[in-house]
Amino acid sequence: MATQHARLLAWVDDMAALCAPSAIHWCDGSDREYQGLLAGMVASGTIVPVPARPESFACRTHPSDVARIEDRTFICTTDRADAGPTNKWADPIEMKATLRGRFTGCMAGRTLYVIPFCMGPLGSPMARFGVEITDSPYVVVSMRIMTRMGANVLAAMGADGAFVPCMHSVGAPLAPGRSDVSWPCATELADKYIVHFPEDPSIWSFGSGYGGNALLGKKCFALRIASHLARDEGWMAEHMLILGLTPPGAAPGSSHTRYVAAAFPSACGKTNLAMLQPSLPGWTVRCVGDDIAWMRTDSDGWLHAINPEAGFFGVAPGTSQESNPNAMATIRRGTIFTNVATTPDGDVWWEGMTAEPPPQLTDWQGRPWQPGCGRPAAHPNARFTAPLSQCPVVDPRFVDPKGVPISAIVFGGRRPRTVPLVIEAHSWAHGVFLGATAGSETTAATIGQSGVLRRDPFAMLPFCGYHMGDYFAHWLEMGRRLGAKAPRIFFVNWFRKGADGRYLWPGFGENIRVLKWMCERLDGHEVAVDTPIGHLPRSGAIDRSGLDLDEAVMAELCAVDRDGWRREITLITEEFASLEPRVPAELRTLLAELARGFGGTSQGRQA
Prior knowledge:
Radius of gyration: 24 Å
Structural class: alpha+beta
Number of helices: 16
Strand content: 15-25%
Distance between the termini: 61 Å
CATH class of the largest domain: Alpha Beta
CATH topology of the largest domain: Phosphoenolpyruvate Carboxykinase, domain 3
Shape: globular
Number of domains: 3
CATH architecture of the largest domain: Alpha-Beta Complex
């Protein structure tokens, strides 16, 4: 594929000389190329067709390569303090020397693929170019789904367009003839590297072929590197879904549609909310994106957002016709499934997909599986990769190069106690405080223990490419720029439990009721009471029509647990102390005000 881009050509030549591949292939993004790569992977045993779903395939990764690897994810800055205590730092000069040693000769006998890609709609002022080099055809086909990639991107880059170099290798030869786990990777954790150089900027990833470790346009570029670029250039790169919310009687995408960006940690319901099927008659939700939002102020002064991705990389377990019918419709065809179980009749299955499991399956590691055998059929972090264009509720403005105007920003997480169903921030700064102090139970999306509460500010703990205290300051600065046009900020918790350990809120399509309350707040309705933690729904303000949920349960969902919040204040104080001296004074002041609020007995007032 012809290009006159001198810097790109020089970089590809340098990497080819380093990695010593047997061939170099410049990806054009064509259907012919895509089908050829799929056929080659079927022949090698890397993927298998899923006959029940046209143009769909399943693959099984090595058991050591099933999730993001935070312990082997590095931010390399000249000054260690700039990476901050929440990131794993390494010296950039020493790390580049280490990586060049790892990459030397690593593609011998393999093809080096060059993938030009664009994050965001081509032609958008918010879009950014990247080029990934990889020796994994799985990465190529996945990047074709997840990004705009190929010849049109290379043409748009021209002879000197800026791009982020993204270097990847699985770090191990493909095992020929393997049909059980035909997945090349470095099997030892110490041999895996996911490395970011935000000052270049560039990305190097070695030893993993899985998802966010290998599809370098995703978390690596669109969040860790982009967050650094956004801070320097005055915009925002966030771990957020984007949805369009339209009330009864209006058309989706019209002037009546409210666009909402929402940040939850991985596997906490972002995809479900992004494709919400509302239970309230007449309301519609349309999906702009389920994972990442890039936002900047437009010429009109409002905050606008694009989804830099073009596909879904969704968590499969728990996805069902009940929890997310639109996701189930999206993956009926043209989907790559990773680490799911397969059925004898040529379909896929995972825990939560149906009320009862099939009597026989092949599990995610290729072993026979039956109910009661004592192990999950699908890996808890099993994934589906599908084009966003296949979603039946894709928003009509998904491809708008200007993006969509954001009316509200929502934070959330898995909190079985303390945090109410929904809180509205007192102000932008207070909303930043809510985002900065967010916490959630960990899930299977990362290597490590599940079910442990950890602080995850803005759902960006694994993804912020610089010091978290400086990130808080950037959010505060964005609020000052936006002024009166700043979106309102909310915090939700779908996961509060009662004394019996059961969830109090039904969730899924019923979450529209909380979104409706937010819209009422945006319209100026006095349907809230003021408390030390923010504005909470006034009694009866959440629409429960047709919902079997009595007032006592609703009151418990919206109750302020004073003892719980006193404990929370202690934990927040410890969190801020770990980020000093870079925690903005404004947030420390808000923490002090929160503590004072729980030192007295003031009652709520109408807001």
